[in-house]
Amino acid sequence: MTVNLRPHHLLCILTYVGKGYSPAFVANYDRIAERISGGEDIRLVAGPDDICAPLLDGADPHCHGESVSMRDASAAESLSKAVGHPLRTGETVRLGALALARLRSAYANGQFIGACAGCSWTSLCTAISTGGYDGVRVRAG
After folding, report:
1. Rounded Cα distance, 119 and 89, in Å
2. Which tens digits make up the pLDDT trace of 3-38?
3. 4, 52 contact by CB (below 8 A)
4. Is the pTM value of this prediction over 0.85?
5. With contact defined as beta carbons under 8 Å apart, do 63 and 40 qualify?
6. Burial class (CB in 10 A: 0-12, 13-18, 19+), 60
7. Which contiguous run of DSSP H or E holds residue 76?
8. Per residue in 116-127, pLDDT tens?
């Protein structure tokens, strides 16, 4: 199987420690983190993804918002620079130990700060990255 992620969620998984919008959201995210940690491929998608799923039944989910789409575009650009080639919708990536370490290093060094601008989780994610990624749920398999 493959995990579908929008570009900014590829950044979010780097610092995910089990906090989220609701218990259902966290339970779903935990399952996704486990799948990625187990070596499952990630397919980059445009718009709502597997992480968004528990939020899509609500009234006017923010997953469809223009600001989220703009964050995706910024994340895709920043991630492309970090990996050294353009990341495009439909591309499949795998987060092995080296790739995960490289992205987490880039995150901790501030390479993705622009992609995270305006996100309500930024202070938590920054604390996690500057704290050595203690407690993160996505681990290299």
Report:
1. 22
2. 999 999 999 999 999 998 889 999 999 999 999 999
3. no
4. yes
5. no
6. exposed
7. helix 66-83
8. 988 899 999 999
Residue of 73, 56, 48 lying closest to 21 (CA atoms): 56
The per-residue pLDDT for range 30-71, each reduced to its tens digit, is 999 999 999 999 999 999 999 998 877 767 666 767 888 999
Paired residues of 93 in beta bridges: 42
CA pair distance 70, 118, nearest whole angstrom: 11
Q: How far is CA 111 from CA 5, 104, 105, 133, in A?
A: 20, 10, 9, 16
Cβ atoms < 10 Å from Cβ of 31: 12
Structure token pair of residue 61: 């989910």
Q: Which amino acid is at 108?
A: A
Q: Which residue has the tokens 């918002």?
A: 65
